[in-house]
């Protein structure tokens, strides 16, 4: 760096810096400098301290990593958290979630539910999330105002949904929103056909053509349960993933959420098409949907990211906890304690999510030139001692209550666990009020 370079806006000096790329590296006594919302410097502490900076912050006992990326969820469903638990997927959807959505979901619901989800995620170390829910324009307004980063998938189903009377109307709205937000620095619009069993071939073909024209991604629930696959095979003789392949949807722009059922043919199709998979272990566990074979996919070279799914089926948006579950579950499913080690688990929760969303050149790792999306975890508590490998401690011994500070594009959105742009007591009061209305309680 030359002496004439502009001063840094902020210099951070954590105890450990985990860039994620290169893989497996933990830097001690290093600093990270930010200028104009981007990472401008990573280097040894002595060199860092020689640089001019408008603000310097020591982060003793803290681990600085890329912000966590929650690659699948339904943000506004946070207002249905705990409304219907301990039920199989189709009963849960058909008897509880879909009727409640028909009755309650409007623009105000989506605004309040999305704000609640954004605040919960920021406090949990998440800097970027993927959303798939009704009134996507309202959700993008929430993301814009919050300072957070997100991928917003336009929900498309064959039947009418809140905010769109038909699949064609949903697609039209999606194209319009895509155009409006094409240059937004923090919001990416994608297309979200709900699932193979709710979207017909004709609509999937329309979505494929539009996504190709716009160079947009497609985000879809696929092979969530064994019965979904079995039903499709009984009715058509074809597995849903094979159908998506035949229709030309699979590819680097395609994000297949869940994938608990993977045959040898499915695996070959995923590898050949370079499709990303979004693994949602706790939702799959809670709905007894099945197990995504993460280690097998990883060994095959498939990009696997991780998501919490909606709070109605999880019941939290805790990606750090989700990552710990994923690391444990991968070992049980693979029958090998070496499956998905802590460093790879962190990579899955950061860079792999960025890659799934096509944002890997922008976020997902701490590298000079990338957006300054970062989280500082406080590892100074007794539950983390002693520290041999801070990444191991982060994944296996640390909860999201240890998230101390968080930045998106260099802007601090969480400072000493306090939200800087959102009013936490108001969000809590609003959620309580929605719960009261939805459950019909008057107390
Ligand atoms: Zn989902």
Task: Provide a compact summary of the structure.
With 443 residues, this protein is of the alpha/beta class.
Describe this entry's structure for a reader.
- Keywords: Hydrolase, Metal-binding, Zinc.
- The protein is α/β, with parallel strands linked by helices and 443 residues long.
- It has two domains: 103 residues, Urease, subunit C, domain 1 (Roll); 290 residues, TIM Barrel.
- 38% of the residues lie in helices and 21% in strands.
- A hairpin with a 2-residue loop joins β16 and β17.
- α5 runs parallel beside α6, α12 packs across α13 and α13 crosses α15.
- The protein is globular and about 65 Å long.
- The mean pLDDT is 96.
- Bound molecules: zinc ion.
- The site of zinc ion (ZN) has 6 residues, from loops.
User: Which ranges are low-confidence, i.e. pLDDT below 50, for 5 or more consecutive residues?
Assistant: none
The CATH first-level class of the largest domain comes to: Alpha Beta
Under the CATH scheme, which architecture of the largest domain would be assigned?
A: Alpha-Beta Barrel
Shape: globular
Tally the helices: 16
As an assembly, this protein is: single chain
Number of spatially distinct domains: 2
Helices and strands in order, then pairings?
Blueprint lengths: L9 E8 L9 E2 L1 E6 L2 E7 H5 L6 E11 L1 E3 L18 H16 L2 H17 L2 E7 L3 H11 L2 E8 L10 H14 L6 E7 L7 H14 L3 E5 L3 H11 L3 H7 L7 E5 L5 H10 L2 E4 L1 H6 L7 H6 L4 E3 L12 H16 L7 H7 L2 H6 L17 E5 L11 H8 L5 E6 L2 E5 L2 E2 L4 H16 L4
Parallel strand pairs: 1-5, 6-7, 7-8, 8-9, 10-11, 11-12, 12-13
Antiparallel strand pairs: 1-2, 1-3, 3-4, 5-14, 14-15, 15-16, 16-17
The site of zinc ion (ZN) has 6 residues, from loops.
């Amino acid at each position: 760096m030359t002496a004439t370079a502009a001063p840094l806006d902020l210099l951070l000096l954590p105890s450990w810096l985990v860039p994620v790329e290169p893989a497996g590296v933990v830097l001690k006594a290093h600093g990270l400098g930010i200028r104009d919302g981007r990472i401008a410097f990573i280097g040894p502490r002595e060199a860092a301290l020689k640089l001019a900076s408008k603000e310097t912050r020591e982060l003793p006992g803290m681990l600085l990593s890329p912000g966590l990326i929650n690659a699948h969820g339904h943000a506004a469903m946070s207002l249905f958290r705990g409304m219907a638990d301990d039920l199989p997927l189709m009963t849960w959807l058909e008897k509880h979630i879909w009727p409640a959505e028909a009755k309650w979901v409007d623009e105000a619901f989506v605004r309040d539910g999305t704000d609640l989800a954004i605040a919960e995620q920021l406090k949990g170390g998440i800097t970027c999330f993927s959303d798939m829910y009704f009134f996507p324009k309202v959700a993008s307004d929430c993301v814009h105002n919050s300072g957070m980063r997100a991928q917003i998938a336009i929900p498309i189903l064959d039947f009418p949904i809140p905010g769109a009377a038909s699949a064609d109307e949903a697609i039209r709205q999606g194209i319009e929103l895509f155009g409006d937000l094409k240059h937004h620095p923090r919001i990416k619009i994608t297309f979200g056909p709900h699932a193979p069993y709710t979207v017909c071939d004709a609509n999937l073909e329309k979505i494929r053509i539009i996504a190709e024209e716009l160079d947009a991604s497609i985000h879809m629930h696929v092979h969530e349960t064994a019965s979904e696959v079995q039903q499709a095979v009984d009715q058509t003789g074809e597995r849903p993933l094979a159908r998506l392949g035949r229709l030309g949807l699979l590819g680097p722009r395609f994000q297949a959420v869940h994938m608990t059922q993977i045959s040898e043919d499915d695996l070959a199709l995923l590898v050949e098409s370079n499709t990303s998979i979004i693994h949602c272990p706790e939702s799959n566990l809670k709905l007894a949907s099945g197990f995504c074979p993460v280690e097998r996919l990883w060994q095959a070279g498939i990009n696997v990211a991780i998501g919490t799914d909606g709070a109605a089926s999880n019941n939290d948006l805790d990606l750090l906890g989700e990552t710990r579950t994923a690391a444990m579950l991968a070992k049980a499913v693979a029958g090998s304690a070496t499956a998905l080690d802590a460093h790879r688990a962190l990579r899955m929760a950061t860079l792999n999510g960025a890659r799934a969303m096509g944002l890997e050149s922008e976020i997902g790792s701490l590298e000079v030139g990338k957006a300054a999306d970062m989280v500082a975890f406080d590892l100074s508590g007794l539950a983390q001692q002693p520290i041999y490998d801070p990444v191991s401690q982060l994944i296996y011994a640390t909860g999201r209550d240890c998230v101390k500070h968080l930045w998106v594009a260099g802007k601090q959105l969480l400072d000493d666990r306090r939200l800087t742009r959102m009013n936490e007591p108001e969000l809590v009061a609003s959620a309580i009020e929605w719960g009261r209305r939805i459950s019909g309680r008057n107390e």
